[in-house]
Amino acid sequence: MTAQNSGQTASPLRLGIAGLGTVGTGTVKIIQNHAALLAARSGRPVAITAVSARDRMKNRDVDLSAYAWEDDARALAVRDDVDVFVELVGGHEGVAREAVTAALRAGKDVVTANKALLAIHGQELAELADAEGRVLRFEAAVAGGIPVIKAMTESLAGNQIRRVMGVMNGTCNYILTRMESGGLPYEQVFEEARQLGYLEADPTLDVGGIDASHKLAILSAIAFGTRPAFGSVEIEGIERISIDDIRRAADMGYRIKLLGVAQMTGRGLEQRMSPCLVPADSPLGQLQGGTNMVVIEGDSVGQIVLRGAGAGEGPTASAVLSDIVEIARGVRIPAFGQPAQALSVPQAARTAVPAAYYIRLALADKPGALAKVASVLGEAGISIDRMRQYGKHDEEGVAPVLIVTHKTTPEAIDHAIAALPETGVIAGAPVELRIEEV
Ligand SMILES: NC(=O)C1=CN([C@@H]2O[C@H](COP(=O)(O)OP(=O)(O)OC[C@H]3O[C@@H](n4cnc5c(N)ncnc54)[C@H](O)[C@@H]3O)[C@@H](O)[C@H]2O)C=CC1
Ligand SMILES: N[C@@H](CC=O)C(=O)O
Ligand code: NA
Protein backbone atom coordinates (compact mmCIF):
# COMPACT_ATOMS: atom_id res chain seq x y z
CA MET A 1 0.00 0.00 0.00
CA THR A 2 1.41 3.44 -0.88
CA ALA A 3 1.61 6.31 1.59
CA GLN A 4 -1.15 8.05 -0.36
CA ASN A 5 -3.67 5.24 -0.29
CA SER A 6 -2.88 4.17 3.26
CA GLY A 7 -4.12 7.62 4.24
CA GLN A 8 -1.50 7.97 6.96
CA THR A 9 0.93 10.63 5.67
CA ALA A 10 -1.26 12.80 3.41
CA SER A 11 -2.57 16.03 4.89
CA PRO A 12 -5.81 15.53 6.81
CA LEU A 13 -9.18 16.78 5.59
CA ARG A 14 -10.16 19.14 8.42
CA LEU A 15 -13.81 19.32 9.40
CA GLY A 16 -15.80 21.89 11.33
CA ILE A 17 -19.07 20.37 12.52
CA ALA A 18 -21.96 22.61 13.53
CA GLY A 19 -24.87 20.93 15.29
CA LEU A 20 -24.33 18.10 17.75
CA GLY A 21 -27.79 16.60 18.02
CA THR A 22 -28.94 13.27 16.60
CA VAL A 23 -27.06 13.59 13.30
CA GLY A 24 -24.06 15.61 14.52
CA THR A 25 -23.33 13.25 17.39
CA GLY A 26 -23.72 10.25 15.08
CA THR A 27 -21.26 11.82 12.64
CA VAL A 28 -18.66 12.44 15.35
CA LYS A 29 -19.03 8.84 16.55
CA ILE A 30 -18.38 7.38 13.08
CA ILE A 31 -15.34 9.61 12.59
CA GLN A 32 -13.95 8.52 15.96
CA ASN A 33 -14.80 4.83 15.61
CA HIS A 34 -13.74 4.37 11.98
CA ALA A 35 -10.72 6.68 11.74
CA ALA A 36 -8.46 4.09 10.06
CA LEU A 37 -11.16 2.91 7.66
CA LEU A 38 -12.04 6.45 6.63
CA ALA A 39 -8.37 7.38 6.14
CA ALA A 40 -7.77 4.31 3.98
CA ARG A 41 -10.84 4.97 1.85
CA SER A 42 -10.23 8.69 1.58
CA GLY A 43 -6.50 8.44 0.91
CA ARG A 44 -5.95 10.87 3.82
CA PRO A 45 -7.01 11.19 7.45
CA VAL A 46 -10.37 12.75 8.17
CA ALA A 47 -10.06 14.95 11.26
CA ILE A 48 -12.48 17.12 13.20
CA THR A 49 -10.82 20.36 14.22
CA ALA A 50 -13.73 22.32 15.72
CA VAL A 51 -17.38 21.92 16.66
CA SER A 52 -20.32 24.15 17.54
CA ALA A 53 -23.72 23.65 19.15
CA ARG A 54 -26.09 25.61 21.33
CA ASP A 55 -25.13 24.12 24.68
CA ARG A 56 -21.46 23.38 25.35
CA MET A 57 -22.11 21.66 28.70
CA LYS A 58 -24.69 19.16 27.48
CA ASN A 59 -23.74 15.49 27.94
CA ARG A 60 -23.66 14.01 24.42
CA ASP A 61 -22.25 10.56 25.08
CA VAL A 62 -19.23 11.41 22.91
CA ASP A 63 -15.81 12.85 23.79
CA LEU A 64 -15.40 16.33 22.28
CA SER A 65 -12.36 17.37 24.33
CA ALA A 66 -9.93 17.17 21.40
CA TYR A 67 -11.85 19.71 19.32
CA ALA A 68 -11.94 23.49 19.48
CA TRP A 69 -15.34 24.88 20.45
CA GLU A 70 -17.13 27.76 18.73
CA ASP A 71 -20.28 29.24 20.25
CA ASP A 72 -21.25 30.65 16.87
CA ALA A 73 -21.54 28.29 13.89
CA ARG A 74 -20.84 31.22 11.54
CA ALA A 75 -17.42 31.68 13.14
CA LEU A 76 -16.77 27.95 12.83
CA ALA A 77 -17.66 28.06 9.14
CA VAL A 78 -14.84 30.45 8.28
CA ARG A 79 -12.02 29.16 10.51
CA ASP A 80 -8.65 28.84 8.80
CA ASP A 81 -8.21 25.30 10.11
CA VAL A 82 -11.47 24.07 8.55
CA ASP A 83 -11.56 22.70 4.98
CA VAL A 84 -15.11 21.35 5.04
CA PHE A 85 -17.97 22.93 6.96
CA VAL A 86 -20.50 20.28 8.04
CA GLU A 87 -23.88 21.86 8.79
CA LEU A 88 -26.09 19.70 11.01
CA VAL A 89 -28.02 22.44 12.78
CA GLY A 90 -31.21 22.55 10.69
CA GLY A 91 -33.67 25.29 9.72
CA HIS A 92 -33.82 27.16 6.44
CA GLU A 93 -33.07 30.61 7.83
CA GLY A 94 -30.80 32.07 10.48
CA VAL A 95 -27.66 30.29 11.54
CA ALA A 96 -27.74 27.40 9.07
CA ARG A 97 -28.24 29.58 5.99
CA GLU A 98 -25.79 32.23 7.15
CA ALA A 99 -23.09 29.75 8.14
CA VAL A 100 -23.34 27.75 4.90
CA THR A 101 -23.19 30.96 2.86
CA ALA A 102 -20.20 32.21 4.87
CA ALA A 103 -18.40 28.89 4.47
CA LEU A 104 -18.81 28.85 0.68
CA ARG A 105 -17.70 32.48 0.44
CA ALA A 106 -14.67 31.63 2.57
CA GLY A 107 -13.67 28.88 0.14
CA LYS A 108 -14.85 25.89 2.18
CA ASP A 109 -16.65 22.86 0.78
CA VAL A 110 -19.94 22.21 2.55
CA VAL A 111 -21.73 19.03 3.64
CA THR A 112 -25.24 19.36 5.04
CA ALA A 113 -28.22 17.21 6.00
CA ASN A 114 -30.52 20.21 5.82
CA LYS A 115 -33.28 19.52 3.29
CA ALA A 116 -35.30 22.60 4.29
CA LEU A 117 -32.34 24.84 3.47
CA LEU A 118 -31.72 23.14 0.13
CA ALA A 119 -35.36 23.00 -0.96
CA ILE A 120 -35.84 26.69 -0.25
CA HIS A 121 -32.42 28.25 -0.86
CA GLY A 122 -30.72 25.45 -2.82
CA GLN A 123 -30.62 27.40 -6.06
CA GLU A 124 -28.89 30.40 -4.53
CA LEU A 125 -26.46 28.20 -2.57
CA ALA A 126 -25.64 26.00 -5.57
CA GLU A 127 -24.97 29.10 -7.68
CA LEU A 128 -22.71 30.42 -4.94
CA ALA A 129 -20.87 27.10 -4.70
CA ASP A 130 -20.38 27.06 -8.49
CA ALA A 131 -19.14 30.66 -8.48
CA GLU A 132 -16.69 29.95 -5.67
CA GLY A 133 -15.57 26.63 -7.16
CA ARG A 134 -16.68 24.76 -4.03
CA VAL A 135 -18.84 21.65 -3.62
CA LEU A 136 -22.11 21.48 -1.74
CA ARG A 137 -23.06 17.90 -0.83
CA PHE A 138 -26.21 16.62 0.89
CA GLU A 139 -26.66 12.86 0.71
CA ALA A 140 -28.17 12.84 4.22
CA ALA A 141 -30.84 15.35 3.26
CA VAL A 142 -32.95 12.91 1.24
CA ALA A 143 -34.02 9.50 2.51
CA GLY A 144 -31.34 9.42 5.23
CA GLY A 145 -28.99 6.48 4.76
CA ILE A 146 -30.24 5.54 1.28
CA PRO A 147 -27.63 6.69 -1.28
CA VAL A 148 -30.26 8.26 -3.52
CA ILE A 149 -28.44 11.53 -4.29
CA LYS A 150 -25.40 9.60 -5.42
CA ALA A 151 -27.56 7.19 -7.44
CA MET A 152 -29.30 10.04 -9.18
CA THR A 153 -26.32 12.36 -9.82
CA GLU A 154 -23.84 9.65 -10.73
CA SER A 155 -25.17 6.16 -11.33
CA LEU A 156 -28.24 7.20 -13.35
CA ALA A 157 -26.62 10.18 -15.12
CA GLY A 158 -27.14 8.50 -18.51
CA ASN A 159 -30.92 8.31 -18.17
CA GLN A 160 -33.79 10.58 -19.00
CA ILE A 161 -35.76 10.26 -15.77
CA ARG A 162 -39.50 9.75 -16.25
CA ARG A 163 -40.78 9.54 -12.71
CA VAL A 164 -39.43 9.65 -9.16
CA MET A 165 -41.68 8.44 -6.42
CA GLY A 166 -41.38 7.35 -2.84
CA VAL A 167 -41.89 7.34 0.86
CA MET A 168 -39.40 9.91 2.14
CA ASN A 169 -40.44 10.67 5.69
CA GLY A 170 -39.59 8.09 8.33
CA THR A 171 -41.80 9.66 10.97
CA CYS A 172 -44.97 9.45 8.86
CA ASN A 173 -44.31 5.91 7.74
CA TYR A 174 -43.58 4.94 11.32
CA ILE A 175 -46.84 6.50 12.53
CA LEU A 176 -48.99 5.02 9.75
CA THR A 177 -47.59 1.51 10.05
CA ARG A 178 -47.33 1.28 13.85
CA MET A 179 -50.89 2.51 14.28
CA GLU A 180 -52.05 -0.32 12.04
CA SER A 181 -49.75 -3.18 13.06
CA GLY A 182 -49.63 -2.39 16.78
CA GLY A 183 -53.21 -1.12 17.09
CA LEU A 184 -51.62 1.80 18.97
CA PRO A 185 -52.93 5.34 19.45
CA TYR A 186 -51.36 8.26 17.55
CA GLU A 187 -49.84 9.86 20.67
CA GLN A 188 -47.95 6.68 21.61
CA VAL A 189 -46.44 6.02 18.18
CA PHE A 190 -45.54 9.71 17.83
CA GLU A 191 -43.58 9.48 21.10
CA GLU A 192 -41.83 6.31 19.87
CA ALA A 193 -40.76 8.18 16.71
CA ARG A 194 -39.35 10.94 18.91
CA GLN A 195 -37.34 8.43 20.96
CA LEU A 196 -35.90 7.00 17.74
CA GLY A 197 -34.59 10.46 16.72
CA TYR A 198 -36.84 10.65 13.64
CA LEU A 199 -38.66 13.92 14.34
CA GLU A 200 -37.72 17.31 13.00
CA ALA A 201 -37.18 20.03 15.62
CA ASP A 202 -40.68 21.13 14.57
CA PRO A 203 -42.59 17.86 14.04
CA THR A 204 -45.41 19.60 12.17
CA LEU A 205 -42.93 19.59 9.28
CA ASP A 206 -43.05 15.79 9.40
CA VAL A 207 -46.79 15.14 9.75
CA GLY A 208 -47.66 18.10 7.52
CA GLY A 209 -45.78 16.54 4.58
CA ILE A 210 -43.42 19.51 4.47
CA ASP A 211 -40.22 17.65 5.30
CA ALA A 212 -40.96 15.02 2.65
CA SER A 213 -41.76 17.79 0.15
CA HIS A 214 -38.39 19.42 0.83
CA LYS A 215 -36.83 16.09 -0.15
CA LEU A 216 -38.99 15.72 -3.26
CA ALA A 217 -38.01 19.22 -4.44
CA ILE A 218 -34.33 18.29 -4.09
CA LEU A 219 -34.74 15.00 -5.97
CA SER A 220 -36.73 16.73 -8.71
CA ALA A 221 -33.94 19.22 -9.30
CA ILE A 222 -31.42 16.45 -9.86
CA ALA A 223 -33.74 14.11 -11.74
CA PHE A 224 -35.37 16.59 -14.09
CA GLY A 225 -32.99 19.56 -14.25
CA THR A 226 -35.47 21.93 -12.65
CA ARG A 227 -34.65 24.49 -9.96
CA PRO A 228 -35.22 23.20 -6.42
CA ALA A 229 -38.54 24.84 -5.61
CA PHE A 230 -40.35 23.69 -2.50
CA GLY A 231 -43.14 26.17 -3.32
CA SER A 232 -44.03 24.20 -6.46
CA VAL A 233 -44.83 20.97 -4.59
CA GLU A 234 -48.54 20.33 -4.04
CA ILE A 235 -48.61 19.25 -0.39
CA GLU A 236 -50.93 17.46 1.94
CA GLY A 237 -49.83 15.81 5.19
CA ILE A 238 -51.17 12.86 7.17
CA GLU A 239 -53.11 14.91 9.73
CA ARG A 240 -56.53 13.97 8.37
CA ILE A 241 -55.76 10.22 8.20
CA SER A 242 -57.57 8.32 10.92
CA ILE A 243 -57.12 4.75 12.11
CA ASP A 244 -60.52 4.22 10.48
CA ASP A 245 -59.08 5.09 7.07
CA ILE A 246 -56.03 2.90 7.65
CA ARG A 247 -58.32 -0.06 8.46
CA ARG A 248 -60.88 0.57 5.72
CA ALA A 249 -58.13 0.95 3.11
CA ALA A 250 -56.68 -2.37 4.29
CA ASP A 251 -60.13 -3.95 3.82
CA MET A 252 -59.94 -2.92 0.18
CA GLY A 253 -56.39 -4.33 -0.24
CA TYR A 254 -54.46 -1.07 0.18
CA ARG A 255 -52.08 0.67 2.58
CA ILE A 256 -51.92 4.41 3.11
CA LYS A 257 -48.52 5.99 2.53
CA LEU A 258 -47.35 9.59 2.49
CA LEU A 259 -46.17 9.35 -1.09
CA GLY A 260 -44.18 11.87 -3.11
CA VAL A 261 -44.34 11.78 -6.89
CA ALA A 262 -42.47 13.93 -9.41
CA GLN A 263 -43.10 13.35 -13.09
CA MET A 264 -42.85 15.17 -16.40
CA THR A 265 -46.12 15.91 -18.16
CA GLY A 266 -47.04 18.01 -21.18
CA ARG A 267 -47.65 20.90 -18.76
CA GLY A 268 -44.24 20.71 -17.13
CA LEU A 269 -42.93 18.96 -14.05
CA GLU A 270 -45.60 17.91 -11.54
CA GLN A 271 -44.57 17.43 -7.91
CA ARG A 272 -47.08 16.19 -5.39
CA MET A 273 -46.84 14.93 -1.80
CA SER A 274 -49.96 13.43 -0.29
CA PRO A 275 -51.34 10.45 1.57
CA CYS A 276 -52.11 7.88 -1.14
CA LEU A 277 -53.31 4.32 -1.34
CA VAL A 278 -50.91 1.75 -2.74
CA PRO A 279 -51.54 -1.98 -3.11
CA ALA A 280 -50.83 -3.66 0.25
CA ASP A 281 -48.71 -6.35 -1.40
CA SER A 282 -46.55 -3.91 -3.43
CA PRO A 283 -43.01 -3.06 -2.23
CA LEU A 284 -44.26 0.38 -1.15
CA GLY A 285 -47.25 -1.18 0.60
CA GLN A 286 -44.96 -3.50 2.52
CA LEU A 287 -42.74 -0.70 3.86
CA GLN A 288 -42.73 -0.67 7.67
CA GLY A 289 -41.52 1.72 10.39
CA GLY A 290 -39.00 4.46 9.67
CA THR A 291 -37.92 2.81 6.44
CA ASN A 292 -37.93 4.92 3.25
CA MET A 293 -38.26 3.79 -0.37
CA VAL A 294 -37.44 5.73 -3.51
CA VAL A 295 -38.55 4.39 -6.89
CA ILE A 296 -36.81 5.90 -9.92
CA GLU A 297 -37.85 5.27 -13.50
CA GLY A 298 -35.29 6.01 -16.23
CA ASP A 299 -35.61 5.52 -19.98
CA SER A 300 -32.65 3.13 -20.24
CA VAL A 301 -32.40 1.55 -16.83
CA GLY A 302 -36.14 0.94 -16.27
CA GLN A 303 -37.26 0.95 -12.66
CA ILE A 304 -34.82 1.14 -9.73
CA VAL A 305 -36.06 0.63 -6.16
CA LEU A 306 -33.94 1.92 -3.28
CA ARG A 307 -34.96 0.98 0.24
CA GLY A 308 -33.42 1.61 3.66
CA ALA A 309 -33.41 3.59 6.86
CA GLY A 310 -34.60 7.11 6.15
CA ALA A 311 -33.95 8.70 9.52
CA GLY A 312 -32.16 8.29 12.83
CA GLU A 313 -28.62 8.73 14.09
CA GLY A 314 -26.62 5.96 12.41
CA PRO A 315 -28.21 5.95 8.94
CA THR A 316 -28.15 9.73 8.57
CA ALA A 317 -24.58 10.03 9.83
CA SER A 318 -23.60 7.27 7.41
CA ALA A 319 -24.80 9.49 4.56
CA VAL A 320 -22.92 12.52 5.94
CA LEU A 321 -19.74 10.44 5.91
CA SER A 322 -20.26 9.37 2.31
CA ASP A 323 -20.12 13.05 1.30
CA ILE A 324 -17.08 13.73 3.46
CA VAL A 325 -15.17 10.78 1.99
CA GLU A 326 -16.06 11.87 -1.55
CA ILE A 327 -14.68 15.33 -0.87
CA ALA A 328 -11.55 13.82 0.68
CA ARG A 329 -11.12 11.73 -2.48
CA GLY A 330 -11.36 14.84 -4.62
CA VAL A 331 -14.74 14.07 -6.22
CA ARG A 332 -16.29 17.36 -7.34
CA ILE A 333 -19.83 17.26 -8.70
CA PRO A 334 -22.23 20.22 -9.04
CA ALA A 335 -24.81 20.26 -6.25
CA PHE A 336 -27.78 19.26 -8.41
CA GLY A 337 -25.80 17.28 -10.97
CA GLN A 338 -25.30 20.15 -13.45
CA PRO A 339 -24.29 23.81 -13.14
CA ALA A 340 -26.98 25.58 -11.12
CA GLN A 341 -27.51 28.26 -13.80
CA ALA A 342 -28.47 25.52 -16.29
CA LEU A 343 -31.43 24.26 -14.19
CA SER A 344 -34.39 25.42 -16.27
CA VAL A 345 -37.10 22.76 -16.71
CA PRO A 346 -40.52 24.40 -16.12
CA GLN A 347 -42.82 23.30 -13.31
CA ALA A 348 -46.59 22.81 -13.46
CA ALA A 349 -48.76 24.54 -10.88
CA ARG A 350 -51.07 21.63 -10.02
CA THR A 351 -51.26 17.95 -10.81
CA ALA A 352 -53.55 16.95 -13.66
CA VAL A 353 -52.39 13.36 -13.97
CA PRO A 354 -55.49 11.12 -13.73
CA ALA A 355 -55.69 8.41 -11.08
CA ALA A 356 -58.17 6.08 -9.46
CA TYR A 357 -59.50 7.39 -6.13
CA TYR A 358 -60.74 5.92 -2.87
CA ILE A 359 -63.73 7.68 -1.34
CA ARG A 360 -65.08 6.99 2.16
CA LEU A 361 -68.35 8.47 3.24
CA ALA A 362 -70.97 7.97 5.93
CA LEU A 363 -74.26 7.19 4.16
CA ALA A 364 -77.71 7.73 5.66
CA ASP A 365 -79.99 4.67 5.89
CA LYS A 366 -82.60 6.14 3.51
CA PRO A 367 -84.17 4.81 0.32
CA GLY A 368 -82.34 6.09 -2.74
CA ALA A 369 -79.32 7.35 -0.76
CA LEU A 370 -76.78 5.33 -2.69
CA ALA A 371 -78.38 6.32 -5.99
CA LYS A 372 -77.91 10.00 -5.11
CA VAL A 373 -74.20 9.41 -4.42
CA ALA A 374 -73.79 7.50 -7.69
CA SER A 375 -75.55 10.29 -9.54
CA VAL A 376 -73.15 12.97 -8.16
CA LEU A 377 -70.19 10.86 -9.25
CA GLY A 378 -71.78 10.24 -12.65
CA GLU A 379 -72.41 13.95 -13.17
CA ALA A 380 -68.71 14.60 -12.44
CA GLY A 381 -67.82 12.01 -15.09
CA ILE A 382 -66.54 9.54 -12.49
CA SER A 383 -67.21 5.85 -12.92
CA ILE A 384 -67.20 3.42 -10.00
CA ASP A 385 -64.87 0.43 -10.11
CA ARG A 386 -65.66 -1.17 -6.73
CA MET A 387 -67.87 -0.35 -3.78
CA ARG A 388 -68.41 -1.73 -0.30
CA GLN A 389 -71.22 -0.79 2.05
CA TYR A 390 -70.89 -1.78 5.71
CA GLY A 391 -74.22 -3.08 7.03
CA LYS A 392 -73.88 -1.80 10.58
CA HIS A 393 -75.39 1.63 11.05
CA ASP A 394 -74.43 3.76 14.06
CA GLU A 395 -76.86 5.52 16.39
CA GLU A 396 -77.24 8.37 13.87
CA GLY A 397 -78.35 5.87 11.24
CA VAL A 398 -75.32 6.21 9.00
CA ALA A 399 -73.02 3.46 7.76
CA PRO A 400 -69.59 3.63 6.11
CA VAL A 401 -69.42 3.23 2.35
CA LEU A 402 -66.15 2.78 0.49
CA ILE A 403 -65.86 3.50 -3.21
CA VAL A 404 -62.93 2.88 -5.53
CA THR A 405 -63.29 4.80 -8.78
CA HIS A 406 -61.86 4.17 -12.20
CA LYS A 407 -59.19 6.64 -13.28
CA THR A 408 -60.39 10.21 -13.22
CA THR A 409 -58.95 13.69 -12.97
CA PRO A 410 -58.18 15.53 -9.71
CA GLU A 411 -60.60 18.29 -10.86
CA ALA A 412 -63.47 15.80 -11.27
CA ILE A 413 -62.83 14.39 -7.78
CA ASP A 414 -62.74 17.88 -6.23
CA HIS A 415 -66.02 18.68 -7.94
CA ALA A 416 -67.70 15.48 -6.70
CA ILE A 417 -66.39 15.82 -3.13
CA ALA A 418 -67.73 19.37 -2.97
CA ALA A 419 -71.14 18.27 -4.33
CA LEU A 420 -71.65 15.14 -2.19
CA PRO A 421 -72.72 16.93 1.04
CA GLU A 422 -75.43 18.73 -0.97
CA THR A 423 -77.23 15.40 -1.55
CA GLY A 424 -78.42 15.45 2.07
CA VAL A 425 -77.72 11.70 2.38
CA ILE A 426 -74.24 11.74 3.85
CA ALA A 427 -73.02 12.70 7.31
CA GLY A 428 -69.85 14.73 7.72
CA ALA A 429 -67.29 15.38 5.00
CA PRO A 430 -66.36 12.55 2.63
CA VAL A 431 -62.70 11.46 2.64
CA GLU A 432 -60.93 11.04 -0.69
CA LEU A 433 -57.47 9.61 -1.33
CA ARG A 434 -55.60 9.12 -4.56
CA ILE A 435 -54.60 5.56 -5.52
CA GLU A 436 -51.15 5.84 -7.01
CA GLU A 437 -49.95 3.39 -9.67
CA VAL A 438 -46.74 1.88 -8.34
N1 LIG B 1 -32.79 13.23 12.68
C1 LIG B 1 -32.83 12.67 11.49
O1 LIG B 1 -33.15 11.48 11.35
C2 LIG B 1 -32.44 13.44 10.28
C3 LIG B 1 -32.16 14.79 10.33
N2 LIG B 1 -31.80 15.46 9.20
C4 LIG B 1 -31.45 16.87 9.26
O2 LIG B 1 -30.25 17.01 9.99
C5 LIG B 1 -30.21 18.26 10.65
C6 LIG B 1 -30.00 18.04 12.14
O3 LIG B 1 -31.05 17.24 12.62
P1 LIG B 1 -31.01 16.57 14.08
O4 LIG B 1 -29.64 16.14 14.38
O5 LIG B 1 -32.11 15.57 14.08
O6 LIG B 1 -31.42 17.81 14.97
P2 LIG B 1 -31.21 18.00 16.55
O7 LIG B 1 -32.25 18.94 16.99
O8 LIG B 1 -31.07 16.69 17.22
O9 LIG B 1 -29.78 18.72 16.61
C7 LIG B 1 -29.58 20.05 16.22
C8 LIG B 1 -28.26 20.53 16.78
O10 LIG B 1 -28.04 21.86 16.32
C9 LIG B 1 -27.69 22.67 17.43
N3 LIG B 1 -28.09 24.04 17.19
C10 LIG B 1 -29.36 24.53 17.15
N4 LIG B 1 -29.32 25.85 16.96
C11 LIG B 1 -28.02 26.17 16.85
C12 LIG B 1 -27.34 27.38 16.65
N5 LIG B 1 -27.99 28.52 16.53
N6 LIG B 1 -25.97 27.35 16.57
C13 LIG B 1 -25.29 26.18 16.69
N7 LIG B 1 -25.91 25.01 16.91
C14 LIG B 1 -27.24 25.02 16.98
C15 LIG B 1 -28.39 22.07 18.61
O11 LIG B 1 -27.71 22.47 19.82
C16 LIG B 1 -28.21 20.59 18.31
O12 LIG B 1 -26.93 20.18 18.73
C17 LIG B 1 -31.54 18.95 10.32
O13 LIG B 1 -31.37 19.75 9.17
C18 LIG B 1 -32.44 17.77 9.96
O14 LIG B 1 -33.50 18.12 9.11
C19 LIG B 1 -31.68 14.83 7.99
C20 LIG B 1 -31.95 13.50 7.88
C21 LIG B 1 -32.39 12.71 9.00
N1 LIG C 1 -37.82 13.88 10.22
C1 LIG C 1 -37.25 13.16 9.13
C2 LIG C 1 -35.83 12.84 9.41
C3 LIG C 1 -35.10 12.43 8.21
O1 LIG C 1 -35.04 13.12 7.20
C4 LIG C 1 -38.03 11.87 8.89
O2 LIG C 1 -38.84 11.50 9.74
O3 LIG C 1 -37.84 11.26 7.83
NA1 NA D 1 -29.68 9.77 1.30
Automatic annotation (TrEMBL):
EC number, as in UniProt: 1.1.1.3
Catalytic class of the enzyme: oxidoreductase
Active-site residues annotated for this sequence: K215
UniProt cross-references to InterPro entries, sorted A to Z: ACT-like_dom_sf, ACT_dom, Asp/hSer_DH_NAD-bd, HDH, HDH_cat, NAD(P)-bd_dom_sf
UniProt binding sites for NADP(+): A18, G19, L20, G21, T22, V23, G24, T25
Domain ACT: residue ranges: 358-434
Keywords from the named record: Amino-acid biosynthesis, Methionine biosynthesis, NADP, Oxidoreductase, Threonine biosynthesis
Annotated pathway: Amino-acid biosynthesis; L-methionine biosynthesis via de novo pathway; L-homoserine from L-aspartate: step 3/3; Amino-acid biosynthesis; L-threonine biosynthesis; L-threonine from L-aspartate: step 3/5
Binding locations of NADPH: K115
GO molecular function, one term: homoserine dehydrogenase activity
Biological-process GO terms, alphabetical: methionine biosynthetic process; threonine biosynthetic process
Amino-acid positions noted as binding L-homoserine in the UniProt annotation, renumbered to this chain: E200
Family affiliation: Belongs to the homoserine dehydrogenase family.
PANTHER family linked to this entry: HOMOSERINE DEHYDROGENASE (PTHR43331)
UniProt name for this protein: Homoserine dehydrogenase
